[in-house]
Design goal:
60s Ribosomal Protein L30, Chain: A, Phosphoribosyl-aminoimidazole Synthetase, Chain A, domain 2, 11 helices
Length: about 350
């Protein structure tokens, strides 16, 4: 898609503040001095068995790009495809889960489009709004900024484990069989994380006058961080330093990594972005896998100016938004993981 940028020069459409020419989280179109529209779309195949939960997770994931740009959701359209023989009640539950999550965001679903598909998929076309002077972009991070993450990692790993193995009745059973079975408590924690909107985190970032942010999804923490760091390198020669021990992980994730429950993202993401990342010797192979792994409906990675760290942390605390400081922006290009 980035090759299309040359077809639409910025001078031809000056109202397009963020478009094909930038690898950002959503498109932004300016309406006037105080309002710009954010537009994004996202959909995927089921990551959990329960249809209502699948719909809600897919909706939260789709709306996340609006929050990553610092905006609020205005309205959404359903995008869906289902096998012809899928029970109507299952379809209704998927739509109901999506609608409930959009309602939580304070927005309506106003329509959409559905096709017949051999494999079910669901997501949203999302329209949001933002002050054009306060857009959060992947670029804009500066040396001295503190890096924060607003959700723990591991959703891709745990949902992969859920697809490949059944729940265990007890830890003793897992040990007796010499295998790691899915612990339903771990899946519940992953689902709760995926269902959490990034709305509060985005508002805390706006309160702290943040310039640079992105959400963590298919490219994993390091893939999405690499896009932010590359933009910072172009702008001011900066890069990122992250401390692996400070990066939060969902319960049980280390056992599932050890058992090989990894997605294709654990291979594709380092192939695409690995040249930008330098690991210290003490960073274990399991930690590297976690940092590269794909996430579903992950948190925001936010670069907070040093003078606004307390403001940001206080705003998160007031909103009940978990947050972890995981590193800093440094005056050296690339990403260091120590």
């Amino acid at each position: 898609m980035r090759q299309l940028a040359g077809f639409f020069p910025a001078t031809e459409y000056p109202e397009v503040l963020v478009g094909l020419g930038e690898p950002d989280d959503a498109a932004v179109f300016q309406l006037d001095e105080t309002r710009a529209l954010i537009k994004t779309t996202d959909f995927f195949t089921p990551v959990v068995d329960d249809p209502w939960t699948f719909g809600a997770v897919a909706a939260a994931n789709a709306m996340s790009d609006v929050y990553a740009m610092g905006g609020d959701v205005l309205f959404c359209l359903n995008i869906a495809g289902f096998p012809a023989d899928l029970p109507a009640e299952t379809v209704a539950q998927i739509f109901a889960g999506g609608a409930a999550k959009v309602r939580e965001a304070g927005a309506p679903i106003t329509g959409g489009h559905t096709i017949t598909s051999p494999e079910p998929f669901y997501g949203l076309s999302v329209t949001g709004v933002v002050d054009p002077q306060r857009i959060l972009r992947k670029g804009g991070a500066r040396p001295g900024d503190r890096l924060y993450l607003t959700k723990p990692l591991g959703t891709g790993i745990i949902t992969t484990a859920a697809k490949q193995t059944g729940p265990a009745e007890s830890t003793a059973q897992r040990r007796a069989q010499g295998k790691v079975y899915l612990d339903v408590r771990h899946l519940d924690a992953a689902i709760a994380s995926m269902l959490r909107l990034n709305r509060a985190a985005a508002r805390a970032a706006q309160t702290a006058q943040v310039r640079s942010a992105t959400d963590i999804t298919g490219y994993g923490l390091l893939g999405h961080a690499a896009e932010m760091a590359l933009a910072a390198a172009r702008e001011n020669g900066a890069g990122f330093r992250m401390c692996a021990a400070d990066i939060p992980a969902l319960p049980g994730v280390w056992d599932y990594i050890a058992s090989g429950y990894l997605t294709q993202g654990s291979r594709r993401n380092p192939e695409a972005y690995g040249a930008q990342v330098r690991f210290a010797p003490q960073v274990t192979s399991a930690q590297r896998s976690l940092l590269w792994e794909a996430e579903t409906s992950g948190g925001l990675l936010i670069a907070v100016p040093p003078a606004m760290e307390t403001t940001f942390e206080s705003a998160c605390a007031d909103a009940g938004q978990p947050v972890w400081a995981i590193g800093e922006v440094i005056p050296t290009p690339g990403i260091e993981v120590i």
